[in-house]
Design a protein that fits this description.
Blueprint lengths: L10 H10 L6 H12 L4 E4 L6 H12 L9 E4 L3 H14 L8 E4 L5 H9 L4 E4 L1 H9 L10 E4 L2 H6 L3 H8 L7 E6 L4 H10 L4 E4 L10 E7 L5 H10 L6 E4 L3 H13 L4 E4 L5 H12 L5 E4 L1 H4 L9 E4 L6 H8 L9 E7 L4 H11 L4 E3 L4 H18 L7 H10 L5 H20 L26 H4 L3 E6 L9 H12 L7 E5 L4 E6 L3 H7 L3 E3 L2 E3 L1 E3 L11 H4 L2 H6 L5 H7 L35
Parallel strand pairs: 1-6, 1-7, 2-4, 2-5, 3-4, 5-6, 8-13, 8-14, 9-11, 9-12, 10-11, 12-13
Antiparallel strand pairs: 15-17, 15-20, 16-17, 18-19
Helix pairs in contact: 2-3, 3-4, 6-8, 14-15, 16-18
The chain binds adenosine-5'-diphosphate and magnesium ion.
Amino acid sequence: MSTFKDLGLNNDLLQAITDLGFEKPSEVQAKAIPILLESETDLVALAQTGTGKTAAFGFPLLEKIDVASRTTQGLILSPTRELCLQIANEMKLYGKYCKGLNVVAVYGGSSIQEQAREIKRGAQVIVATPGRMKDMIKRRLVDISKIQYSVLDEADEMLNMGFKEDITEILSHTPEDKNTWLFSATMPKEVARIAKKFMANPQEITVGNKNESTSNVTHEYYMVNARDRYQALKRLCDANPDIFSVIFCRTKRDTQKVAENLIEDGYSAGAIHGDLSQNQRDMVMKSFRNQQIQMLVATDVAARGIDVDDVTHVINYQLPDEPEVYTHRSGRTGRAGKTGISMVIVSRSEVRKIRGIERIINQKFIKKEIPDGANICQVQLMSLANKIHNTEVNDEIDAHLTSINTLFEDTDKDELIKKFFSVEFTRFYNYYNKSKNLNVSESSRDRDGGRDRDSGRDFKGGKNDSTRYFINVGAKDGFDWMKLKDFLKEQMDLGRDDVFKVETKDSFSFFNTENELKEKVLQHFTDFKHEGRFVNVEVSENRGGGGRRNDRRSGGKRRDDNRGGRRGDDRRNASGGRSDRRRGGDGDSRPRRSENSEFGSSRPRRSRR
Ligand code: ADP
Ligand code: MG
């Protein structure tokens, strides 16, 4: 069977399918649709994300319900609000020629009364999150006693999220003789248990191997020191100028921090996690869908709703605790027949986790090296060249051509090209020139030397675990940040990464160390003289600092839009704990000339798409 028509769908649906541009059924559709159309049966279907499961249950459901009746006949349970909305929207598209069809989405964070009203108008199909559905039943706002079909979509996710009790409760209000269709990407034991509990002799279909991830995804891992994680992330992004990616972190805090750091470093990024309001999440998701954001940093829970087709890369900034979760992460790319890459940044101690994941996904990881500076510069340069080559000429420029030509009268083509490219390229070159090798081998502990100008370091140690100091020497005394960093390291006999976020002002400066070095630093600079004058170091009240991008470029406002709205207290933390009151007072959190900043002049900026 090779067409939707062969599968036995009616003309209304076939017309909608043509409108949608679906040419032929996907594997799970080809397998599930005939079974569901031809028999009244329970079904367990296992297929990866992005394989078209929504239509696999959506088409048969629409075919089977009676649109002339206003009774609720189908109930689809799905783990998140985003998925719920997405499924409801898809169902409406599929059923656009089914006259009288009413599909209602029911989910938290939106008026329950309004949803109840919509149902009362006669919803044949309800798409719901378990939590809100249970609520509605309890408040008698919905009647599901005549349900004929219940669909458990993303069953593994729903169980992961602890919806087992809710599902049990909800299904207890439905008729015994209904059919239940369970769709899942993986088949952990709990799903098998649920299937057994709620289903009678279900037919089973599997697309690909159980628990196997999509084969059009390549899996790569990169080994670095844990403290270089963030630098490694930036390089992976810089080495892929057209990246459109989801970056996974383990905690909400890390998610927020990575996104903030990326934004501060000039990347087009946003965060999505449970501490954001629904509104904020919607905004971030909208920007991501429109590809206004190139990098979406997400927690596993928040990412459950992300079904965006063109994701080129999934980056595991940290590995999940449960290896099964990796399948869901990597399933965010390689969707709808496209290829994708799932990258994992690991430290040496985590390599064994990679082996565990390989067993689950039944695919081998490729060990890759974090690209070096020269490599990235080359990629960026060629990407720029291609962009220029493909740029449509704007004829408005003609009016100014004479003056421009006069200016370049004596410049030959080669030189002109070089100059032109230098505008963009020098930024990357300066940033990556002499940058260190971030790769570590699986056995040895030593790292490549080389000067690291990129002292942003993993943010983990950057803010709350570190102490910020004030020192009463600055540019006037002949220090720039590099010289001051060297000076401090030499003075206290510290390692290369022990002093960071060094920032020199005219007559004073700031720097950070890990908290545990605080005693040592303060001790060293008690009664300390340098070139005949007392050098004084104090703990600065502004603990963060360093590397905040001057608001001039992004105009301050856009940055906020970009990060999808942070909560007030996050903002305070990000700018250094208690320092807000002192904003502008100590010169540390005031917009500064980036030339003085460690990140500033040398940080490559990403142009938005
Ligand atoms: P899953 O639920 O398995 O993760 P979805 O149902 O969300 O997958 O489908 C993934 C994408 O593939 C969607 O954009 C959907 O519109 C598209 N799609 C589904 N079926 C087909 C098909 N037969 N042909 C082309 N695209 C399809
Ligand atoms: Mg789905």
